[in-house]
């Protein structure tokens, strides 16, 4: 009889992709899928070409124009900004040169990297997936180890299909109970980040588990894992269950016959062993979740909608107090005030966090037959061409347009405002995105992160509103 | 900045006591439109350095004449969190920074810095606070010495160890060609890939097969 040490899912994924152990902290990690965009890859290709190196496994790489693309509702998109247009042309040239699959500017399936990869079945349990974008943690929702990398590392992956990977520590976050009506995975992750802090998971790969996690749809799990990076996590994982596997099999028709049986057997092993050791464990109760909204300029500066903005003078930690003071100066709020009732000029529904079909259905459901408030500009930017087409087929687009929303083309858009979707100074935005950093949506603009349902409520009322106070039919 | 035997960085430090200073602030979006690494120095910490009309903010530390030669940043915890953009590192180096001292760094920023030989000295939180206090009471920049051989940060009034892995220390000192080093494993990578794809054929060429299935 042999004794085996119980291991975590994270450790299994690393072990199954380790080509060589380089030293105590670093391994050469094989990468199954590498996604690229137009703005973090050009210098990597340039470095590759300068060194005379090629891309040995082009079919494991894929690129998409996502960050700089305009989202105006026109059929044929032209990138007006010359440097941005050059980035898009350059991406196509690099992909053509190396035989790398591309979703180009006017591809009907173009969209945000982290929306298109899973929706077309490219994300499969047990994979290692990297991308020059921090929100690559999203793929943990399907039991794949995803994480963001820099441009030097993009070049490394292109040249070797591997990465020099610094090992992370294991953290487990257990969430049991039931999310109350009016709350979503977005509220849950904002609550978790507000509790453990913007660096609460720094250095860790987080495995989410518990009955509340099992009950989440795959799209809700994407939202959860997507934002784990805002707590500093180097990855987020959910062990693949029937929900995840059904999703993957529906999206990946090539996994069939004997291969399907083989895959199912392998995926059943993708779980942390009983007794596996986690360096840190947190436990949360889903039933305690309320709709969460950020009040500051870091994603951990978030609060339940029925709470009040913290008073800096009540914060004992000097660093946190000074951060709160600076944040409140920027967001033009006062400690002790409620967020409900604060007027917004803009509502943004989009991003790799919350621009999938379930998010848009939720917005549609909350809006119902109501109309966007006077003086509010409300934009919906679907996560991909496929999401957009689906929402149009379901009548969501027509209803939201009738309600006064702008129905845009897919892209990253105002999540980071790298294209021409930029807020003016002082504008306050109810946003379904992932970062409320100073200047993120435009210099001097104020971002309040929240769920799609809460953003829909803000659009209707013209101010930050507890969605649970709105009458919703159906 | 001077280097003693290439193992010690001595420089003039500015204090930027902001926790969770993210890479969006270090290098804002409007400076990310290039296809090369050049031209990033003007964008560094742009909204902190310049007001809404593009004029330098006189009260910001890097704009003060005494700090014109700053090449070390004494930063708050979790410096460089957020976006993976390596432009943040390139921009710091183009501006003239050789090192950052802080109690913690964003994880992707840390890897990016190491890959570009921007020295990051991670000290304990109490030590970071001691250096910050010293910087606040010093007229002009604080002279800091970062001894990579001894893993020690020194000033006139303080001395503290910093954490850096042996691998990253060697990368800083020797300027390792990481890709070249990994390519010496090419045979092992090929053998691994064959085994991996035989055991899990559903992960092979997924991007290419998907693109072909969807139509070009």
Keywords:
heterodimer; A: 474 residues; alpha/beta; Aconitase, domain 3; 2 domains; five-stranded parallel beta sheet; 17% strand; globular; B: 216 residues; Aconitase, domain 4; eight-stranded mixed beta sheet; 36% helix
Provide a quick synopsis of the model.
The complex is a heterodimer of chains A (474) and B (216). With 474 residues, chain A is an alpha/beta fold.
- What is the CA–CA distance across the termini of chain B? 53 Å
What is CATH's topology name of the largest domain in chain A?
Aconitase, domain 3
**CATH-defined superfamily of the largest domain in chain B:** Aconitase, domain 4
Question: Which band does the percent of strand residues of chain A land in?
Answer: 15-25%
CATH architecture annotation of the largest domain in chain A:
2-Layer Sandwich
**Integer tally of domains of chain B:** 2
**Low-pLDDT segments, ≥5 res of chain A:** none
Q: Give the helix proportion of chain A (percent range).
A: 25-40%
CATH class of the largest domain in chain B: Alpha Beta
Shape of chain A: globular
CATH superfamily membership of the largest domain in chain A: Aconitase, domain 3
The name of the CATH topology of the largest domain in chain B is: Aconitase, domain 4
Mean pLDDT of chain A, to the nearest integer, reads 97
Classify the oligomer: heterodimer
């Amino acid at each position: 009889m042999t004794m085996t040490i119980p291991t975590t899912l994270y450790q299994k994924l690393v072990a199954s992709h380790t080509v060589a152990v380089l030293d105590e902290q670093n391994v050469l990690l094989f990468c199954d899928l590498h996604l690229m965009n137009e703005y973090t890859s050009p210098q990597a290709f340039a470095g590759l070409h300068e060194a005379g190196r090629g891309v040995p496994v082009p079919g494991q790489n894929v690129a998409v124009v996502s960050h700089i693309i305009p989202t105006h509702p026109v059929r044929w998109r032209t990138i007006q900004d010359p440097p941005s247009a050059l980035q898009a042309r350059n991406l196509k040239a690099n992909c053509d040169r190396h035989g790398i699959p591309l979703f180009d500017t006017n591809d009907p399936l173009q969209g945000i990297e982290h929306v298109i990869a899973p929706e077309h079945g490219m994300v499969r349990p047990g994979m290692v997936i990297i991308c020059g974008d921090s929100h690559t943690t999203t793929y943990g929702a399907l039991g794949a180890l995803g994480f963001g990398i820099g441009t030097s590392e993009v070049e490394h992956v292109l040249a070797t299909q591997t990465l020099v990977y610094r090992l992370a520590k294991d953290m487990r976050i257990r969430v049991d109970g039931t999310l109350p009506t009016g709350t979503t995975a977005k509220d849950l992750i904002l609550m978790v980040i507000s509790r453990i802090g913007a660096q609460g998971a720094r250095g860790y790969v987080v495995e989410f588990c518990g009955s509340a996690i099992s009950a989440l749809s795959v799209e809700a799990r994407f939202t959860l894992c997507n934002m784990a990076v805002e707590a500093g996590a180097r990855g987020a994982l959910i062990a693949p269950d029937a929900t995840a596997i059904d999703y993957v099999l529906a999206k990946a028709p090539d996994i069939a016959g004997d291969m399907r049986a083989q895959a199912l057997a392998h995926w059943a092993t993708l779980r942390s062993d009983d007794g596996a050791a986690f360096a840190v464990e947190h436990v949360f109760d889903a039933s305690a979740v309320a709709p969460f909204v950020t009040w500051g300029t870091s994603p951990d500066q978030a609060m339940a909608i029925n709470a009040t903005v913290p008073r800096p003078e009540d914060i004992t930690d000097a660093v946190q107090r000074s951060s709160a003071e600076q944040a409140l100066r920027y967001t033009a709020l006062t400690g002790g005030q409620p967020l409900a009732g604060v007027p917004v000029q803009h509502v943004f529904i989009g991003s790799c966090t919350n621009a999938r079909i379930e998010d848009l259905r939720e917005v549609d459901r909350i809006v119902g037959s109501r109309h966007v408030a006077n003086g509010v500009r409300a934009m919906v930017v679907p996560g991909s061409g496929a999401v957009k087409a689906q929402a149009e087929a379901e009548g969501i687009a027509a209803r939201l347009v009738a309600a006064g929303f702008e129905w845009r083309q897919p892209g990253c858009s105002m999540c980071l405002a790298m294209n021409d979707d930029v807020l003016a100074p002082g504008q306050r935005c109810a946003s379904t995105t992932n970062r409320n950093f100073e200047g993120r949506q435009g210099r001097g603009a104020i971002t309040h992160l929240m769920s799609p349902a809460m953003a829909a409520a803000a659009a209707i009322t013209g101010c930050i509103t507890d969605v649970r106070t709105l009458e919703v039919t159906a | 900045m001077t280097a003693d035997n290439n193992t010690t960085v001595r420089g003039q430090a500015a204090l930027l006591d902001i926790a969770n200073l993210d890479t969006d602030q270090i290098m804002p979006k409007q400076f990310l439109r290039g296809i090369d690494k050049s031209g990033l120095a003007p964008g560094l910490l742009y909204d902190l350095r310049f007001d809404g009309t593009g004029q330098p903010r006189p009260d910001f530390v890097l704009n003060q004449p005494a700090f014109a030669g700053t090449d070390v940043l004494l930063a708050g915890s979790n410096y460089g969190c957020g976006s993976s953009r390596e432009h943040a590192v390139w921009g710091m180096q183009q501006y003239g920074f050789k090192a950052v001292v802080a109690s913690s760094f964003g994880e992707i920023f840390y890897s990016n810095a190491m890959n570009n030989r921007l020295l990051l000295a991670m000290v304990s939180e109490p030590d970071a606070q001691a250096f910050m206090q010293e910087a606040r009471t010093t007229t002009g920049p604080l002279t800091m010495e970062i001894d990579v051989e001894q893993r020690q940060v020194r000033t006139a009034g303080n001395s503290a160890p910093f954490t850096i892995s042996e691998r990253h220390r060697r990368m800083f000192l020797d300027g390792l060609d990481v890709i070249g080093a990994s390519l010496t494993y090419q045979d092992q990578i090929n053998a691994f890939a064959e085994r991996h794809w035989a055991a899990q054929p559903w992960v092979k060429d997924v991007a290419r097969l998907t693109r072909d299935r969807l139509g070009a």
